[in-house]
Amino acid sequence: MSEFEFDLDAFEAGLDDTLARGREAFRGQYAAEINALSGLSRAEIDRITPDTTDLEIYDQLMIVVKEASRVNLQQAQLKSQILKLGEVGVQIAKKVPSLATLFV
């Protein structure tokens, strides 16, 4: 296979793994927070910064919360991971009341 050929089997295997992890996340400790974050509108997110930085950070926050849910991460550890996303990540997280309590 040349460097320009696409390995569909590898893609599908990786996709299956990603989908399984996603299902586990929605069954975990932070499932409600994932649902609340998913329910945020584009307008709510855009109020944080005028550029696309907020959307990138929102995506990263979703990944952090999903993984935290999947592995049942402790709240203090989840807070630490969100803080690593910077002020934009914290501001987005604060839009979810149960995540906002981590930062009081």
Provide the succession of SSEs.
HHHHHHH
Beta-strand residue fraction: under 5%
Terminal CA distance: 54 Å
Alpha-beta content class: mainly alpha
State the low-pLDDT regions, or none: none
Shape: globular
Radius of gyration of CA atoms, rounded to a whole number = 16 Å
Structural features:
single chain, 104 residues, mainly alpha, 68% helix, 0% strand, globular
Q: Can you describe this structure in just a few lines?
A:
This protein has seven helices and no strands. With 104 residues, it is mainly alpha-helical.
Describe this structure in words.
There is one protein chain. The radius of gyration is 16 Å and the shape is globular. By secondary structure, it is mainly alpha-helical. It starts with 7 loop residues before the first helix and ends with a helix. Helix 1 packs across helix 4, helix 2 (31-38) packs antiparallel against helix 4 and helix 4 (53-70) crosses helix 6 (86-93). The chain has one domain. It has 7 helices and no strands. It has helices at 8-26, 31-38, 42-46, 53-70, 75-83, 86-93, 97-100.
Please describe the topology of this protein.
Blueprint: H1 8-26, H2 31-38, H3 42-46, H4 53-70, H5 75-83, H6 86-93, H7 97-100
